[in-house]
Amino acid sequence: VNHGTLQDADSQSGADFEDNVIIVAAVAERMDVLVTRDPTGFSHGPVEVLSPADLLARLASAAAPSPPPNP
């Protein structure tokens, strides 16, 4: 996080400055998803937000073996 990140965070529409810093940093680093127990603070951001349980469910479904192709 640098001075520019903090300035950008200060101009965000969210009320929580720390959440805004995380959003701006996530966008700058091209993150696909934020994982948090408090998703309401990130609802105004452009990065997808998941709860820890949702992330685990997504990872479990991605790791599930695919059915064999039909002959």
Q: Strands of the largest sheet, in order across it? A: 1-2
Number of strands: 2
Shape: elongated
Instruction: Measure the end-to-end span.
Output: 53 Å
Structural class: mainly alpha
Proportion of residues in β-strands: 5-15%
Relative helix content: 40-55%
* Discrete helix count: 3
The ordered H/E elements are HHEEH
Query: Which assembly state applies to the chains in this document?
Result: single chain
Report the average pLDDT across residues.
91
Extract low-pLDDT stretches.
none
Map the helices and strands.
Layout: H1 3-10, H2 17-28, E1 33-35, E2 48-50, H3 52-63
Parallel strand pairs: 1-2
Helix pairs in contact: 1-2
